[in-house]
Design goal:
The chain is α/β, with parallel strands linked by helices and 220 residues long. The chain has one domain: P-loop containing nucleotide triphosphate hydrolases (Rossmann fold), CATH 3.40.50.300. It has nine helices and five strands. It has a five-stranded parallel beta sheet with strand order 2-3-1-4-5, with helices on both faces. Helix 2 packs across helix 9, helix 5 packs antiparallel against helix 6 and helix 5 packs across helix 8. It binds thymidine-5'-phosphate.
Amino acid sequence: MSDQKADTATRKTRDRGLFIVFEGGEGAGKTTQAGLLTEWLESLGHTVLQTREPGGTELGKEIRELLLHGGQVDPRAETLLYAADRAQHINTLVKPALDRGETVVQDRYIDSSIAYQSGARGFDAAEIAGFSAWATGGLLPDLVILHDIDPLDGASRREQRGAAADRLERESLEFHRRVRETFLQRAGQDPQRYLVIDAMQTREAIAEQIRERVTQLLQR
Ligand code: TMP
């Protein structure tokens, strides 16, 4: 993306609704927190679209099924399927909502591709970021809330829920450690855009930290 385009993507922030993304490893509790934040924002009178990747659109639901519950997927095909889901999702659902001034609370976005397909699978980070930038026209979130958790704790939470592991969850502990490291590195490089949450805290403590940060964002 050219500097001029990147600048436009950033400056547009206040002309449209807020775009808040939840990220993190498996079993980190981000979906629960996305729901709590949505309820809180709605109680303040905001119109909120709560959505997710992959699987936020009809096409995306089919892509999600293929990615997580189908057979073997080549890593390059996997990368492109996540990008295809993202293109459909952002262009048909998320951007129109932001343009109407709505707040979007989204489970996973570009950082997941960089953490899983680059950090863990080993593809070049700039190339992976490039696919997403192309798919989305360079749309960046206003805030990324990263739920940080040791992959062993995340896996044991899932086991306690009795949920079967999907294709990505069945990857090695080493894979999930690289995912975690990549998320943390990215957050460390841009503290203005990221809020890192210790996901082992209580649900209420986490919700409170998120509300505090989002309140600051709403006042900007
Ligand atoms: P989740 O919706 O239960 O978090 O599952 C989505 C899975 O897909 C999770 O293992 C992370 C993975 N993923 C990627 O590998 N790349 C991506 O770009 C996205 C959005 C998700």
